[in-house]
Structures are given as structure tokens and as C-alpha cells.
Amino acid sequence: MKVSQSAKEKTKVKILESAVELMTIKGYKNASLREIAKEAGVSNPTIYNYFPNKEKILYAYIEQKLIETGQVLKEIEDFHTYTLREQLQTLIETQLEFYLEDREFVTQIMSMALTPSMGAMELIYESKEKFTEMVSEMLDIAIEAEEIAEPPFKEYMPQLFWDYNVAVVAYWIKDDSEMFENTTQFIDNSMGVIEALLHSNILQKTSDLGMFMFKTHMLSSLQKFSTKQSGFNKIKRKLGEVFNEK
Amino acid sequence: MKNSIPTTKMSRGGVVGKAMLKIGVSHSKGVVKRAFMSKEKKEESQKETHAEIAKVIIESLGTLKGISVKIAQQVALGLPFLPQEYLDEISKSFNSIPPINKALIRKIIKQELGNYPQGVFESFESEAFGAASLGQVHLATIKGEKLAVKVQYPGIAKSIDSDLGVLKFALTRFAKGGNIDHLMDEVEARLNEEVDYEIEAENTEYFYNNLKHDLIVIPKIMRELSTKTVLTSSFLEGDGFEEFLAKNPTQEERNHYAQLIFDSFFMGLYHMQMIHADPNPGNFIFMDEGKLGLIDFGCVKKLDNEFLASFSKLHVSLMDKVDDSEVTQQYADLKMIDKDSPEKMLEFYQEVIKPLDRIYIEIFEGDSYDFKENNDFSERGFNTIMEVQKKSITAVHNMNEDYIFVDRTLLGYYSMFEKMEATIDTRFAQKLVRY
To answer: Complex ipTM, two decimals?
Structure first.
């Protein structure tokens, strides 16, 4: 019996959901394909049919979230009135919304990706196609509508934007501000830079972003760094002893 | 996890500190230069320094963005004794809150109201129709009813403290009188209230339920569509202040609306013990059929009986022109004059406060006041402030914040009435003051 396309899709989503759940609880390494199959209610051979190995699940997860993101964007009635910057920003923000539901899982992916020895960075990059397609389309429309002039190295733009996207997710993973406000501001400011890049008046926007990064992060990490140095405290303690003796 | 807040504050503090350093440099430069100058040149140079400082403050506020615009507004309105150069620069920074684009507005609505704008409302205009305090306003509809949805820029509430830090530093050094801590505290309290739209929702409902006047319209809050950073209310259709004036209204119309604004203030003060303390012309909607809409209750001031009693007593004394020592005593009771020997206090009153309150009380001296005829009202007030400023005696350490807020609001209205060239009937207000 032939399994219909939509039934296949459903099974895939079911397996993905189970995988996310199990990997969230047990960790990526400790969750086996066998357990995931059991959780999803499919047979072992079936799951291997869909995903020959665990890495493929990660790949499929990222792609699945992009498909869902694309669907959300399609439902925005006045999306054609959005500027290129607003469209790209909506893409990034919507994708993050989906990630929010599986934040712990995404954290695992990212930490694997950012650990050089794990080699998962390449893996994430495998899943970029869907993303770059969407970005290319938005770019093409903006150029055709003469919103922006055709940028030099246009074919590299979607790729660059994907890199940016990975950076945003990495930032978000580390963000512990309330409601992830810092990420929201980071995206808004950095999108300002990208917009300025495309409209080529980059200086002002870069300094805005620089200011935000400086204020929110650099100084606080410097602060942390300086408090780690115990030498100063030792000196203070010594001084305290001297003064107390008097 | 929670340590992010103090560290963020610290890092903002770093920027703040940098601005302070710049101000310090600018100030000492002026002092050094001035030491070798003639008197006129000194004044000129002081002006320059002030302008330079003002610029530095505004520059640093510009990089801090967000809340600072609001602080600038508060300060510009609340501290009339600041040098004009500050006020000029501060007023330039008005209306420069970062815009919320279509991507961001979707995100905020989803985050706050649980769904995207098109899922929450029947229609939602992703292009804002107006700027609001710390955010922007969008038009939406539900069941055909027009709604105003006010949305706040994310992360603005967090920036209050450090932005105030810069300003406090700057003002403490350059405002005459020195101690403005308690005033800044007051401003900070108002701001913290203003960034919380839930408080604004409560205030709006309080006015909606208690300000009873056939011709005054208060928007109805949609609680289920409001949060700390999103505020949804019914939309009031009508003209803004500038639009109203641009249509060349008749004298009757001008008087009518000015009267409503004036009376609603005193009704709030005496019947509800709460005033709408933000005298921005943008907060009034000139509606059809002679109706006046009041919007934006982010900045209100609650007043207690004790304050009202001394406020009234003082006004009655001023209207009845009782002798100066009696008035001085009442100002001292109101904590507007520092306790000192009777002679010192009287001198302070006569030198600093009296020139101002003589102008101020003019409004209440007859049954009506014609702002067309007295179109130099604010100018005279301002010049008097400048005169008073020059006197060495202006060391005020105590100021009653309630009094300042009430007065500031009234003065804001008067400058509107001046632009409207309206005549107001003050009998109702006088009756309330003499209750």
C-alpha cells in the first residue's frame, strides 16, 4: 500500500516532535532512535526510513520550522506592503517564535554547533537552503520593485543573511533578559545596519548597534572580568588590616 | 539568571559615566575661561557653556534613547527655572522615540496578546497613526468598532534609571538651588508609572467612571486587550489641537473648548482629587457636537485633602490680596519656602515667589480672563522667571512636588489658551477653590 504524501508528512512531524521531547529530557546524545520511534509510535524500520541517523533529525527540525515560518509569512495579508527590512525581520522573528517553544532543544543544537569538535555547524548549514530561498525571493522582489538597487555580490546576500540568522539564534540562546528584550533590540538594531547596508548609509546605523552592544554587553563582561582578579581584593584586605591596627 | 539586570544597569552606567565626564570637562572649561573676562563677556560665555552642556546632555540622551525623551519632556515642563539653553536643546529631542516597524509590531502584539494582529483584531493598520508616550498608536477594529492600540517599544522601562542618572548629574550641577533630588524622585515615580500601561488603564477607567460631564469624553479601556506594554481603548474621532486651530474656529468655539479644558481640570482636582498632569495639547481631541476628548492618562497626579486645603487657602489668600507675611507663612506650610527667620522668609517670598504668583493669580482676579488680550501671559511669566534666576537669593531646597505639578499643568493649559486666543470664565474654578 502506498502511503500518501500528507500521511508521510504527518509521520515525519510526529517523529520530530517526539525527538524534540526526548532530546530535551535526556539530551541529544542519550536519546536513541529506537526510543524516539517508540515515543512516536512508529516501528524501528519506519524511523530509519525517515531518518537514517540522529543528525538528520536536527536537519529536518530546522527545515520543518522554516516551512512553518514560511506558512506564517504567507498568511500576512499586507506582507507586500512591508519594506525589505521588515520582511527579513519578520522572517527572523517568526522563526525565533517557533524556536521559543523548543528553546532547550535549540540550545542543545546551538551548543553542539558552536563546539568546534562536534562538527554540527556544517550540519546546521546543510539546512540553510530553505532559508536562503526565502531571502532570495524577498531580495528579488525588492530589487524588481526598485526598493533597493541591485547590491553587488547579490548571490552571496542570502548566504550572509543566513550567517546573521545563526548569530541571532546564538545571541538569543545566551539572552537572559526579561522576555528576551535584548534579543528584540539586538535584532531591531542590527536589522537597521543591514537596511543601511542595502541603502548604503551604514555609518550611523553601525554606531547605533555598536552603542547597544557596548552598553548591554561589553561593559558588563569587562566588569565580570575585572572582578575575577582577586589581586585588588587582596590589596584592599591588606590595607584594611593596616588601618585596623591604627 | 537574574543577574542580567544589575549588570545591564552597570553597563549603561558606563555610557552614562562617559557623558558625565564630558559634561564635567565642558563645565570646567567655562569656569577657566570666565575667570579672565569682563562681566558682559562672562554672561555671554556662560550662555555658551550652558548651550554646550545642554548639547552634551542631549547627545548622551540621544544615544540612550528610549525613556530619555520622556524625561526631557518632564524636565522641560517641570523645572521652569532651568536656563533656556537647556530647554531649547531638550525640546529638540522631543518625539524621537525609536519607531516600531511592522515586523516588531507583529511580534509585540503576539507576545502580549497571544496572537498576531490579524488574529486578535478584525482589522489592524500596521502603519501607526500617531506617536504616544514611549510608543506609537495603531488603529484597529473589532465588530466594526474603531480602537486605538498603543504599543510600547520593547525594553524601554529598563532604561529609566540610568537615563535619569545622567540628567540628575547634569541638573544638580547646573540648576540653581542645587538640591533637586526629591523633584527627580517625583519625575522618576511618574515615569515608572507611565511605562506601565496597566496603571494607565486604571487611571483612564477612574476618569471614565468619575468625571461626569456631558461634553467630556474619556476612552473606554478594553481590559482583555491590554497589558503592561499594550493598551487598547475605544478610538475618539476628532481633530488634534493644531488641526482644530487650522480650521479657523469661531471665537465661541475657541472659548467653548478652552472652558471645557479649564473646568475639567478643576473638576478633577476637587471632585476626584486626581488631575491629568500632562498638559500636552496632543492629549485633547476636539470632537463633533462641542465634545472634548481627553486621552493619554499615563501621567496623572493624585492629591490628598491636606494638600487641597492648603492649595485652596493659598489661592484664596492670593485672590483676596492678604498681606505678604500671611502668604509667606502659607507657602512655608506648603513647603515651598525653607523654614528660616520670618524676615528671611518674607524676603525670599517677595524677591522670588511674589513676582511669579502675581502673574499667576491674574487669571482668578475677575470673573473671566481674556487670553487674546493678555497674549503675553507666558512671555511675562518666562521673563519673570529669568529675572528671578539672576538673583542670588534663589536657593530653594524644598519644593512641594504636588504644588509644582498642579501649577505646571495649569501653566501648560494657559499657554494653550493663549494660542487659542480664548476667553475663559473662571467663576466655576473660583467657587471650587473657595469651597
So the answer is: 0.71
Q: Is the pLDDT of residue B184 over 90?
A: no
Domains (ranges, CATH) in chain B? Answer: 4-96+159-174 (no CATH), 99-152+196-235 (3.30.200.20), 239-435 (no CATH)
Compute CA distances B204 → B149, B223, B227, B295, B349, whole Å: 14, 11, 14, 8, 38
- Other C-beta atoms lying within 10 Å of the C-beta of residue B19: 21
Which residues of chain B have a Cβ shorter than 8 Å from any chain A Cβ?
1-5, 7-8, 10-15, 63, 98, 101-104, 106-107, 110-111, 116, 118, 126, 154-155, 158
C-alpha A61 chain-centroid distance: 13
Question: pLDDT-based confidence at A21, cuts 50/70/90?
Answer: very high
From the list B101, B111, B118, the residue facing A77 with the nearest CB is: B118
| Residues of chain B above pLDDT 70, percent | 67
Q: Which residue from B419, B368, B369 is spatially nearest to B254, judged by alpha carbons?
A: B419
What is the grid cell recorded at A206?
A: 553601525
The greatest distance separating any two alpha carbons of chain A, rounded to the nearest whole angstrom, comes to 94
Under the phi-then-psi rule, with left for phi > 0, alpha for psi from -120 to 50, and beta for the rest, what region is B210? alpha
The SS3 assignment for B276 reads: strand
Q: All domains of chain A, ordered by start, with CATH? A: 1-52 (1.10.10.60), 55-177 (no CATH)
Distance (Å, whole) CA B109 – CA B118: 10
